[in-house]
Every structure is written in structure tokens, then in C-alpha cells.
Amino acid sequence: METKTLIEFVRDTYQTHDFIPLHAPQFHGNEQAYVADTLDSTFVSSVGRYVDQFEQDIARFTNSGKAVATVNGTAALHAALYQAGVRQGDIVITQALTFVATCNTLFHMGAEPLFVDINRFSFSLCPQALAEYLAEHAFVSDDGQCVLRATNQVIRAILPMHTFGHPAQLDELLAVCQQWHLVLVEDAAESLGSYYKDQHTGTLGGFGALSFNGNKIITTGGGGMVLCRDQQAGEHLKHLTTTAKVAHPYEFYHDEAGFNYRMPNLNAALGCAQLEQLPNYLVKKRELAMQYLSFFESDVNFREHCFVQEPEYAQSNYWLNAIVCPDLQARDQLLAQTNQAGVMTRPVWQLMHTLPMYQHCLRGELTNSEWYAARLVNLPSSPVLMSI
Ligand SMILES: *Cc1c(COP(=O)(O)O)cnc(C)c1O
């Protein structure tokens, strides 16, 4: 079996004969203490000091104007896109290689995703493909809106996703946005702790959305956060995601149709403790990625496989390690043999335009997306915290 050396390598790394998951949460810090504190105080719900603290800690960590906690990453995306001005009938350009939440959010807003190819090295929305698509299919109207020629719909924003934690080419994407009057919203659900040049992902566009789902680099059980570059937009977003209630000692007055997207204090307590661990996780995940890299560079069974590395302009959090197989057959063999041996691996998500609800969406050429979809495999990526 050709994958035997890989299976041995992963088992050696995690020092276990048990099932090895793709990514497991770990609680070795103040998690118990902070969560117990919310129970003792009875402040487990939508009000409490951990929510404020978690928002402030994330804003400081990412250096964003304001951070707004939400109930999950999908809700963070929805709120971010809404604050960015996306409305019913609008088009938002995104990538076909992403997790389905990116598109579901648009669908439920009555907006439509339009798929453009990914770049070969960033695995995220390709600035060149984007510029070419717009040049061929769009124009900027007299009132300064980017309009799709074929349907006269407004293209409001672009929504790149930092795949597996590897940052997109943000300077180039921002330049296209400026030329075409588009807002940049970043799906940074996978990229907490990843930097584009020296800026944290999710802070270069107007808005970025983080996720703290159980499989992400840190978790709150379920949770998300909107990173807002502009503090005032952030203040409004906080208002909007907390039912848009105008502060008053007892009256209920709401000045717009808000969302109840609040993260409970119980979850925020977990988040505060997890965030304390993040710097250590980042070190350990980079170490793990470098170990995979040297394994794949030296093992004779994997001469034709290529380990996915961060783009040269970026520092990635290496959330999910990935390997590019030579072809579909090699991919399927790797998936079957590793999973059979209790080492979890996974193909990349099926491309969005192949799912029933998004197959009718407009799209450009998706050559790189299709090429990678047939070859990418994610590998076990939990940080190895205990060395035995
Ligand atoms: C995890 C994830 C989300 C959604 O986060 P939830 O917290 O699960 O709602 C959105 N986009 C991408 C790319 C993700 O990986």
C-alpha cells in the first residue's frame, strides 16, 4: 500500500493508535474556569462581560477598527454583507472552491453569487481572472455602480475566501475593486492568525467574517465575528446584530429591522480562553506543516504529490494542511486508504456551481478550480500540543 508511509508518519506525529480526526478542538487553558464563571454569575446568555472582552481581544489581535461577535460564521458573513450594502437582486463575485456557507448567505439575502476562478498559488479568488471577467461583462454606470451587461444587475461586492487559511492576493483584488467600484468583503472564516503582508486577513476590505465553529483554529462551540475596518460602521453593525434596540432603561424601541445574531456570553467565555492559546497553536501548526513538507519532499511514494504552502507574500495559519495529488485516481486511492486506516483525510468541497442550488449561477472559466477540485486532499491538522 503506497500510503503506508504517510499513515505511519501521521500516527507517529500524533502518537496514537486511535482514530485521528481532521481537526479537533483542545482545551488546556482557562476554558473550564471562564465557562464555569458564566454559570456562577448566571450571565450565560446575550449579555455579559465575556462578549465585550472577546470583541475587544479579537479587535486588538487583528488590529481592526471594531469587532462584532455573532452566533456563527455564517451570521457574521450575512451581517457583513448587509452592512456592505448588498441587497436583493445584487450580484456578489466569489469563488466556486469554498465552503457552502459563503454562497448560502448570498442566496438567503436574495443576492446571487457569480463564480470566478481561483489563482493557482493562493487557492483564492484570482485578481486577473476577476479583472478579465469584469472587462468583458461589466461596465461602470454614470452613477458609479458596477453593472453586469447581460442582466443590468448591480455587482455590489467581491467575496474572496482565504482557503485553508492561505491569504488571497488582497492588494491586487483591492485595485480591481477600486477601478470597478466594488466593496471587498473577506470570508476569513478559516484564516484567524493569517497575515497578508503584515496585515491580518479580514481587515483589508471593508469587512471580514471569522468563524469559531468546532473545527476552526479556535472555537467558541459555535460563533463568529465581523471585523470592521471603519469603527462607525462597526458600531452600526453591533446595533443591527443586536435587534437594533435603542438604549433605554425600559422602553422597547427598535429603529430598523435588526438581526438577533448575538453570541451568548457562555460561548464568548470559551472564546476568551481559546484566544489566549492562539499564539501557541499558530507556532505548533506551522511546525506540523513543516513536518508534512519535509515528509512529502523526501518520501519516494509521494514524488508526484505536492504539499500546499503559504503564498510568498503571506504568513498563513496553516489551518488545514493539504496535498495536491497527481490526478483524480491517486486522490481517490489516498482518501480510501487513509480513511480505512483510521487517519481522516477529506477531498476539498465540491465546487459550488456543481451543487443543485447554484448550478444556474453565472460563472467565468473555472479551469484552476476544476483542476484542484479533482486533486486536493486535506490532512489531519490539529496542533500537536503534547510531545511525548
Ligand atoms: C466555517 C466556514 C464558514 C461558516 O462558519 P460557521 O461558523 O460554521 O457558520 C464560512 N465560510 C467558510 C469558508 C468556512 O470555512
From TrEMBL:
It comes from the Bacteria. Keywords: Aminotransferase, Pyridoxal phosphate, Transferase. Gene3D superfamilies: Aspartate Aminotransferase, domain 1, Type I PLP-dependent aspartate aminotransferase-like (Major domain). Pfam families: DegT_DnrJ_EryC1. Signal peptide: none annotated. GO terms for biological process: polysaccharide biosynthetic process. The active site is at residue 216. The modification N6-(pyridoxal phosphate)lysine is found at residue 216. The keyword Transcription regulation does not apply. One of its GO terms (molecular function) is pyridoxal phosphate binding. Belongs to the DegT/DnrJ/EryC1 family. NCBIfam families: NHT_00031 (TIGR04181). PANTHER family: BLR5990 PROTEIN, TRANSAMINASE. This is Aminotransferase DegT. It comes from Photobacterium jeanii.
